[in-house]
């Protein structure tokens, strides 16, 4: 039997780039369209090296860098295929923080496993190559002539429909100098124009100011026959009781759990009847290992899991589970070419990343399945370092 690879080094590379025609909204938390603006973004690539020359890579670790630094020394000498043990050990080691490091490390380890066995992740997970229906997930509404009115959103939804999309998600204006009526009008207008053509979704991103306004928006979703609504108001998406109350008073299915972490909190939210659809993300919820645990737990309760955000890792996971509906392709906008760093070669999660039927597919290469564009990364590199080494 071939020996398992052992971890010998943990390293990171940081980079900066600019997004064109993208700015920030009134509170600087959300990206919005802004003609001529260039928004500076940074990113970090994690590499886990082994004694067999196999390197696991994940290019989107973001705020998890502190967590990775905390547990990097622990990883040295470990069996790189012992993902379950490392998942549980790092979860304990990072329990006093957000535990984002659990996920990014796990993803890199799955990349190692796929390269070791020369198989794409979806094969290791027992999945199959299949069409994944995508929804167009918009940038937030703006005041800059992009998605500035309900008519702008309707025009963009029509464009997406003509491209092949059969689902469309709104990120509205939130508190950007507006009131709940503009959000309600947007929902009702989309429902009127696209009923029977598009599955409509809305994510207020925890910006609706109170329970009363959340009910107004939820009842508009009922009238417009929305497929789901998610994270409506400013509890931060974490109150089980509050969302159970919303479920009792609004017919449109609610999607929650984006802002809680890992398996146990998701199961608690399900048992408390705080959601209809379950949100999970490999980056936030313990990697491929954690997201699959949440998907299977949700399946046991008869619920669907919806993966948060795009990326090849989520294509693999979605190809490997039954209880899911859509791949989130975003954030997209009619006047913005991309909202992502081009770190992958031959991979597209932008507006035109679907086929004519509105589908995407998991990549077929070993591991995550898409090589990183190291020429681009090095051209935009700002720093690099070794966090731990044998």
Overall 3D form? globular
What amount of the residues lies in strands? 15-25%
> How would a textbook summarize the main sheet?
9 strands, mixed
Second rung of CATH, namely the architecture of the largest domain: Alpha-Beta Barrel
How many discrete structural domains?
2
- The helix count comes to 12
The radius of gyration is: 21 Å
What level of helicity do the residues show? Answer: 25-40%
Q: What is the CATH first-level class name of the largest domain? A: Alpha Beta
State the CATH superfamily name of the largest domain.
Enolase-like C-terminal domain
Are there runs of 5+ residues with pLDDT below 50, and where? Answer: none
Stated plainly, the CATH topology of the largest domain is called: TIM Barrel
Number of DSSP-assigned strands: 13
């Amino acid at each position: 039997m071939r020996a398992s690879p052992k971890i010998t080094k943990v390293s990171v590379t940081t980079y900066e780039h600019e997004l064109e025609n993208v700015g920030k909204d009134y509170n600087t938390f959300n990206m919005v369209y802004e003609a001529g603006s260039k928004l500076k973004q940074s990113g970090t690539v994690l590499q886990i090296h082994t004694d067999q020359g196999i390197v696991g890579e994940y290019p989107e670790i973001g705020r998890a860098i502190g967590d990775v630094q905390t547990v990097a020394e622990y990883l040295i000498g470990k069996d790189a295929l012992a993902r379950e043990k490392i998942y549980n050990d790092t979860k304990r080691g990072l329990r006093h923080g957000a535990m984002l490091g659990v996920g990014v490390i796990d993803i890199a380890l799955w990349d190692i496993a796929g390269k070791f066995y020369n198989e794409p992740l979806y094969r290791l997970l027992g999945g199959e190559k299949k069409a994944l229906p995508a929804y167009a997930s918009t940038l937030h509404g703006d005041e800059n002539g992009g998605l500035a009115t309900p008519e702008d959103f309707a025009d963009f939804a029509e464009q997406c429909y003509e491209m092949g999309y059969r689902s469309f998600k709104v990120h509205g204006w939130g508190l950007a100098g507006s009131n709940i009526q503009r959000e309600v009008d947007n929902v009702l207008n989309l429902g009127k124009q696209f009923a029977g053509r598009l599955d409509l979704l809305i994510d207020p991103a925890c910006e609706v100011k109170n329970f009363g306004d959340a009910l107004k928006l939820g009842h508009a979703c009922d009238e417009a026959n929305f497929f789901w609504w998610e994270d409506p108001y400013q509890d931060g998406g974490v109150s089980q009781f509050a969302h159970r109350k919303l479920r009792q008073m609004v017919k449109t299915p609610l999607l929650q759990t984006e802002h809680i972490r890992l398996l146990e909190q998701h199961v608690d939210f399900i048992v408390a009847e705080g959601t209809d659809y379950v949100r999970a993300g490999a980056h936030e919820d313990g990697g491929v290992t954690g997201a699959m645990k949440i998907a299977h737990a949700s399946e046991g309760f008869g619920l669907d899991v919806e993966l948060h955000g795009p990326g090849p890792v989520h294509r693999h996971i979605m190809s490997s589970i039954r209880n899911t509906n859509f791949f989130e392709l975003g954030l997209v906008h009619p006047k913005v070419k991309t909202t992502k760093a081009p770190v992958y070669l031959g991979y597209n999660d932008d507006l035109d990343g679907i086929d004519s039927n509105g589908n995407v597919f998991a990549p077929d290469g070993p591991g995550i399945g898409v090589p990183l564009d190291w020429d681009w990364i090095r051209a935009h590199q700002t720093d690099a370092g070794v966090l731990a080494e044998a």
